[in-house]
Amino acid sequence: MILIGRSKWVPPRQWKLWSLPRPALSYVLGVDAVAIAITALALASTISGARAGVRPSEWVAFAVLTAASVLHLESARGIERRREMAANSSPYTNLKSLWVFAGLLLLPLSLVIALIVVSYGYSWIRVYGRTIAHRKVFSASTFILASAAAAAVLRGGGLIAEPRVPTGPFSLLVVLGTATTWWLVNFALVIGAILLSSPDATARSALGDLSDQLVVVAGLGLGVAVGALQASYPWVVPILMVTVLTLHRDLLLPQFQRAAGTDVKTGLATPAYWANAVPVELARAETLRSTVGLLMLDLDRFKEINDTYGHPAGDQALKAVGQSVRAEVRQGDLVARVGGDELAVLLPGASETEVLEVAERIRDRLSALNVSVDTAADRTAVITGVPASIGVAVYPDVANTMDQLVLAADNALLTAKQDGRNRIVAARPNPPAVTDHADQPVEP
């Protein structure tokens, strides 16, 4: 038995872990097993190895970092909970790295691992709520593996005795190399899990927005500062909490805003976010004398999936469709869920030819899409093909306002449905009005 969320116990055979694709399952369990082995070795080294237990000063530093980490998580609980609700298939960035990296400079590896366990355990209880347990265990495991690799770099650079804060140019380089190693190992492990768990995901989508990784970099930099202050001026550390909380809000604000405008079931933009984004893009296009392409997608016979396999299976299929559509568009394009099974794609700067090419790639991908879903009978089924009809409209070729553009794309979508489904239809410009001068009255 294991606790999923706050109060729901789930038998082991019902864990979501087992629904992962076999390569992803082996990968996740392998990473978890290595983390457990590292934990055991670190504990053994602390108890009976080269170290003779933990020094009092290290226990004090551990207590300070643990308390600061818990206070930080509790203070930022609202932001983190909303970010956690956003469904996505890219790395989830946070500032836990701050306290963990400070611990690497001040503590033996066994206490660093204890700090990671406390941090994720507290987050699980107070922040994440009802969620999938194996993801949090895996995240903690990646932190443990990254910390072990970083500790090896510190030892290799000659920084063996704690505190291992930079005191000169060479030690600074060692610490910077350690921070880089920690980030690379953690990032690579997470990317591997995403790619194996989502066969339709591309490397680009799995990497996510690399600018988000600045959050982790900032956390590691603050970790060095916290470690140095804790080693020399421990009473200054509480003052940094105001700075940490302010940076947490500002650094994670873009992610928070995306989470607030993200459909929980699909990870796509919400109708409200979409309605605000379209006029902004049209105004920008008008200023730049550019174009904006719009695709309206309606999944053909999607109701049959819900009726045959159940609505949870339909949600799984819809999420896979959203991931497939995002994989065929550019980084700056916006994909939204604007209805039950209706999606919209906004393509700034795209010509009609480019928009039609994207639409054709999406149509082909969805027609060949295979989705593994959990049925209402507690079985797994594979849905082969989730075809869609697509309407295409381009600003300013067929419309001058948001309402006109959406109406043109909707009318094209309706035509695609009426012409036999699984088709692409482009809206045509309205012909200019023609005045028949022969019918005009002639003034005397």
UniProtKB/TrEMBL annotation:
Membrane keyword on record: yes
Renumbered residue ranges of the record's region Disordered: 423-444
InterPro entries named among the record's database cross-references: Diguanylate_Cyclase, GGDEF_dom, Nucleotide_cyclase, Rev_trsase/Diguanyl_cyclase
One GO molecular-function entry: diguanylate cyclase activity
Domain of life of the source: Bacteria
Pfam families: GGDEF (PF00990)
Keyword terms: Membrane, Transmembrane, Transmembrane helix
GGDEF domain ranges (all copies): 290-429
Membrane-spanning residues: 24-47, 99-125, 137-158, 170-198, 210-229
PROSITE patterns assigned to the protein according to its UniProt record, in alphabetical order: GGDEF
Protein name, entry field: GGDEF domain-containing protein
Organism: Kribbella antibiotica
